[in-house]
Amino acid sequence: MQNETTGQIESNRFEQGLPAADPTVAVFEEEGRGPIRRLQHFLHAYPTMIPFIILVLSVLIFSFFAGSRFFAPLNLSLVLQQVTIIAILGIAQTLIILTAGIDLSVGAIMVLSSIVMGRLAVESGVPVWLSFPIGLAAGIACGWVNGILVTRLRLPPFIVTLGTWSIFGALILFYSRSETIRQQEVQDVAAFLQWTGYALNDGLRDVYAFARETMGSETWPEWQFRFSGARITYGSILMIALAFVVWYMLNRTAFGRHVHATGDDPDSARLAGINTDRVLIAVYTLAGLICAIGGWVLIGRIGAVSPLSGATANLDSITAVVIGGTSLFGGRGSIIGTLIGALIVGVFRNGLALAGLDALWQEFAVGVLIIVAVALDQWIRRVSA
User: Fold this and answer.
1) What is the pLDDT of residues 210-234, one digit of tens each?
2) Suppose 346 and one of 9, 79, 274, 340 were both cysteines; which one would form an S-S bond, judging by CB atoms 3.0 to 4.6 Å apart?
3) DSSP state, residue 273
4) Positive/negative CA dihedral, 271, 272, 277, 283
5) Stretch 33-50: mean pLDDT, rounded?
6) How many Cβ atoms are within 10 Å of 68's Cβ, its own excluded?
7) Is 95 exposed, middle or buried, given 0-12, 13-18 or 19+ CB atoms closer than 10 A?
């Protein structure tokens, strides 16, 4: 009994520790963040803010140099028309980049789909109600091939789509015989293919002109219909509707969560029960369909069916996605950011042209934007590192 009491006393003496030691507990959390660190965390949580701020600054700068010409209704609608195809392909590219991939064949898929639609309807005499869905099916098939090659052969998406870009390009030249179907020929046989190029307010302009002729300019003064100079095409409206559908799918459905999870960490996604191969095939197939819709819009934009159109579409779509804040490493990005990125490209090119600068400097400015966007993405990603 005495030995147990002695041992307890010795134990208590050793547990008391050093009398001069600091009794505070170690804390490993950050006590405070500086303004730069807070900005970094804010931009990581809201990546769309960067392209939005750049777009606002671009509009302010070019409105200062170009004056009222920049805000003219016709000029603003022209910018929207110029970025419509880039934005549609950017939507397809965003889906793929969210899975940590990249697609260099989106432009070729778009042109091939437009060639299939046009030649079947005009040259082969296939009714447009049949040739149009066949063209969409061609885009779906091209995207499905990309997805199968990426998942089954386990090849990098860059290499796969680089190869299919050349394959689809060869099919374009083979099927089109390097010939362009003229605008009048398409209009006579398959005017529906040009529908996306028609303006929503063309009919309103005709009504306005008739009203001025019959009722006089005092009843219908010019300022009441000043926006008649703008041309809002059905292709632009289709682009906005398509962006909304894809945004809803990515943010409000289980498939969208699977896409983000696959791009963020495919191993963890597989352990969570997600069939990542099936997600990738679905993403590439859906991207092919969106590119085919872009082919339809392309016919409406130029009025003809040309195998030489869309030469820079691949790089333009990647540019819009990167400037829009989507991470090239997958898992982070948004459709809204891509639309803003496309608008930034259009505003820069239009504003520099109005300022009288050569097209060389337009491409120079876009290149600088790409480098800045990637550098900002790397800086923001350090938050989660």
Assistant:
1) 555 665 555 445 444 444 567 889 9
2) 79
3) T
4) negative
5) 71
6) 8
7) buried
